[in-house]
Amino acid sequence: MKTSRSSSARPSRFSSPSPSARSTPGTGCRSASASRTPCRPKIARVSRPDGHLAAFEAQRPRLLRLAYRMTGSLAEAEDVVQDAWIRWARVEDTVDSPAAYLTRIATRLCLDRADSARARRETYYGAWLPDPLVETTEMEIMADDITLTLMLALERLSPLERAAFLLHDVFDMELADVATTLDRDPAAVRQLAVRARRHVEAARPRFKVERADADRLARAFFAASRDGDTAALASLLAQDVTLTSDGGGKVIAFRNVITGIAKVMRLFAGLRRKFEERPEILEWVTIDGLPGYVTRDRGGIFQTTALDIRDGRIAAIYMTRNPDKLGHVAQAIGYSADI
């Protein structure tokens, strides 16, 4: 692929905020108090034909979705998209398939970041969860059936397995094109995809939960945990329920995954005795395909809770409390206080 020698300045990731609009750390977006506009990186115009920019903009949602599924981080996904733009801005207008070319760039950028991302996971304080994305504003990212639970299953794959599965099974790329993107033999890529698919399918629920049933269980769980209703809580939880809480060392959270209904019940009972003030519901939402809600406690701590429901019971509880991961959520629901 030939490249032009004319230099292109890196575009600004986001439109310039007014002096009163403070950026939300980790997202590059305005704080929720500044705007209700969804967090969305802006590609600044450079000295290229409008058609070149338009071709990139047409693929931007797909690239963002791929990068988020690969990294689990919205901020990293936005960085990948920006780096892809830099490379795209430098190529001549002779690319036969912008979609394939940009997908290849974004995938390789994600793979280049894989080692450093894994190192950060290993030193991360406590349990790690992907950035929570709420359905109200991130539909273009969530235009697939990859739930938060499946995101965690993807995280346990090797980077190449993850890429092979996403490109072939989620983004519907032909195996030969995936092989070209990953610079691997098609037979090897097929094996990568098979291993990944087996792992992901094992984490997928047997039956789809109806939206109304999921919302009902989420509301019942919130009420029972808030009110300390142990009988109601016990009727909602699976025997092998797990609770994962991500505070990133920034706020109080459970450092390890809590497993089993007895331990989870004791945990909620202890929290109810320790904290008399009840959390405030800010919004009922769908988080990465799972029913859930956004709350704030009297101490001002902001949190998302997502519930994985299997066979009519709550099988997993995911609580994200790390403020670095919640700026875009606060903005999406119009939350006006600092987090």
From TrEMBL:
Q: Name one GO molecular function term.
A: sigma factor activity
Q: Name one Pfam family in it.
A: Sigma70_r4_2
Domain (RNA polymerase sigma factor 70 region 4 type): residue spans on this chain: 150-199
Q: Kindly give the SUPFAM superfamilies that the UniProt entry links to this protein.
A: NTF2-like, Sigma2 domain of RNA polymerase sigma factors, Sigma3 and sigma4 domains of RNA polymerase sigma factors
Q: Report the record's Gene Ontology biological process terms.
A: DNA-templated transcription initiation
Renumbered residue ranges of the record's region Disordered:
1-44
Quaternary state and partners of this protein?
Answer: Interacts transiently with the RNA polymerase catalytic core formed by RpoA, RpoB, RpoC and RpoZ (2 alpha, 1 beta, 1 beta' and 1 omega subunit) to form the RNA polymerase holoenzyme that can initiate transcription.
The protein's name is Sigma-70 family RNA polymerase sigma factor
**Organism of derivation:** Sphingomonas montanisoli
